[in-house]
């Protein structure tokens, strides 16, 4: 285990992904987190970003970690909006998502939350250990027999 300040790099296996709450909304322009349909500051519409809670196993512990948009996009292979619409069309894709990602191994850089309100260790980066790793959306499309699954 390699430590760099409050960050550490560990080999992790994905155990489960909380597929019930994967997104939050921000303003498409100023990127403030908002819960209204349009941004109250600049009036722009919103977009979704990923915020994924998952449990991972290291060689010594099981941790609940949170994965924000930049890292989640690598795992999922698409934008949060695209994934949201896919899930809406395929109601069981949350389950399938767990099936396709469970057991995948990554070298993850985990960083301790800077502020006391953030409860979960966050994933600063995730590099798949398998050279044949394919992002979840490709595997899901394949499971559902959709064209353009590459
Ligand atoms: Zn705005």
TrEMBL record:
Top-level division of the source organism's lineage: Eukaryota
Protein name: Replication factor A C-terminal domain-containing protein
Species this protein is from: Flemingia macrophylla
Source organism phylogeny: Eukaryota, Viridiplantae, Streptophyta, Embryophyta, Tracheophyta
């Amino acid at each position: 285990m390699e430590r760099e300040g409050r960050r550490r790099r560990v080999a992790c296996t994905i155990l489960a992904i909380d597929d019930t709450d994967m997104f939050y909304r921000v303003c498409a322009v100023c990127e403030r987190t908002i819960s209204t349909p349009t941004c109250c500051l600049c009036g722009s519409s919103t977009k979704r970003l990923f915020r994924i809670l998952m449990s991972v196993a290291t060689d010594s512990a099981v941790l609940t970690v949170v994965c924000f948009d930049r890292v989640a996009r690598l795992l999922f292979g698409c934008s949060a909006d695209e994934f949201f619409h896919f899930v809406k069309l395929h109601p069981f894709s949350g389950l399938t998502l767990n099936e396709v990602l469970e057991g995948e191994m990554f070298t993850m850089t985990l960083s301790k939350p800077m502020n006391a309100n953030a409860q979960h260790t966050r994933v600063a980066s995730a590099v798949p250990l398998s050279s044949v790793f394919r992002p979840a959306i490709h595997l899901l499309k394949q499971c559902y027999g959709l064209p353009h699954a590459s």
